[in-house]
Amino acid sequence: MLRIFRNAMLDKRITRKTFSFSAVAAKRYVIKDHYEFDQKVINSDNPVIVNFHAEWCDPCKILTPKMTELLEPSEEIDLAIVDVDDNAELVQTFEVKAVPAILAFRNGVVVDKFIGLVDANMIENLIGKLTKKKTA
């Protein structure tokens, strides 16, 4: 894609105005602390799926890439990754007892959650719930 764009820019017959990029991809975050969590999850205008995971967790190593893949086409849902070993305060606040743990937020409130390795259908159902009409 970049090569096509670069080549087009080099061709003097095509100007920048020829290209427009209207789709804005959903945001992906690695949350460092509770301040960033508040800013990017609790205060987000978009629904956010929060993936509590750990580097040593084998099911997390499967679920995290699957979540990223399934959310890739979404422009409406953000994904926040929280390492449980680095964020004990968030783990305690949201009562995360096992990993992976997925919490879905809308308007700063947990609206759904699941624990453990789940199949793609469950993740797609969660995405479907979050993309339905947003509540004010």
TrEMBL record:
Any GO BP: cell redox homeostasis
Pfam families xref list: Thioredoxin
UniProt protein name: Thioredoxin domain-containing protein
Organism: Anopheles farauti
UniProt GO cellular component terms: mitochondrion
InterPro entries hit by this protein: Thioredoxin-like_sf (IPR036249), Thioredoxin_domain (IPR013766)
Domain Thioredoxin residues, every copy: 12-132
Homology family: Belongs to the thioredoxin family.
Coiled-coil regions listed: none
